Amino acid sequence: MEKKKAAPKARKLSVPNGRAVKARGRNWENAVVSICHRLGWVDAKRNGAVYGGADRGDIGGAPLTIQCKAVDRVQLWRHLDDAIEQAGHNGTSDETCVVYKRHGGSTADAAWVFRGDFAERLLQHYYLTFSKD
């Protein structure tokens, strides 16, 4: 009887390599920019560190403030609070979200987290626009 090989475990560095961590974040931001382009937001681009202390989110040129996270540990409330603060700097009010990359997953596996009142407006618009009644 043949033994089945276990899937390889994700490699964890005891001390994270700064360049690798930055590259993972940059690559995720580029993937989210591609999603924005597919949504028709052709001016979407990475903000990088352009705004310093008055950060306006990771993605600019979109009608909402987008914070991208490719992290091992999700700190949902902290990240959402940061995104809400950045939306204030960006002038988009509560229209903000945090997009989490799933480890080993595609962009379709991402989790988009919206503030409650904004999510309600999105759902209402979606179902009023696309309902079959």
Structure characterization notes:
The chain is 38% helix and 14% strand. It contains 3 helices and 5 strands; from the N terminus they run αβββαββα. The chain has helices spanning 18-38, 76-90, 116-130, and strands spanning 45-46, 59-60, 65-69, 96-100, 111-114. The strands form 2 sheets. It has a 3-stranded mixed β-sheet with strand order 3-4-5. It is globular.
Topology at a glance:
Elements lengths: L17 H21 L6 E2 L12 E2 L4 E5 L6 H15 L5 E5 L10 E4 L1 H15 L3
Q: Short summary of the structure?
A:
With 133 residues, the chain is an alpha+beta fold. It is 38% helix and 14% strand. It is built from 3 helices and 5 strands, in the order H-E-E-E-H-E-E-H.
- Tell me, briefly, the overall form: globular
Question: Strand pairing plus helix content: what structural class?
Answer: alpha+beta
**Average residue-wise pLDDT:** 85
Tell me the number of helical segments per DSSP (H or I, 4 or more residues long): 3
Task: Write the H/E string, N to C.
Answer: HEEEHEEH
Protein name: Holliday junction resolvase
What are the key terms here?
single chain, 133 residues, alpha+beta, three-stranded mixed beta sheet, two-stranded antiparallel sheet, Holliday junction resolvase
